[in-house]
Amino acid sequence: MHQHAIRMGITLCTICWLTSCAMNDSRIAHEAQTRLVGLAEVDLESCLGVPDQHQSFGRTDVLTYYATSTSTTSFTIPVVGGIGLGNGAYCHATIRLDDGRVTRILYSGEKNATGAPDAYCAPISRTCLQYLDHHHAS
What we know:
Blueprint: H1 2-35, H2 41-48, E1 53-57, E2 60-68, E3 75-77, E4 83-85, E5 90-98, E6 101-108, H3 122-137
């Protein structure tokens, strides 16, 4: 019985740790949706790289970036039916630019970690947020 309690404690700690990581990634993805607005296209591509897709419509450009979760953490909680966490996921970040500046960022795909909306989109924007932090600090 004592070993079972230890295993359950470890499982619960692991779940809390994974959830806190996913919640931080969710915060990063949502922060990017506001902080990157106004960024020039050349700065955006400097920190994100060349987009996977690029469409132009007059003075409006739509850039799409794809991210796939590289998380291989997967486990099942030993209860009736089991609860699985750590499924692979993907995010498409669609960025609209008007007159060469970011005006909107939308996320689509299988992008939500358990309890953390848009968490799988954080890798797309993390580098740009770091760029902004460094640029403003200089």
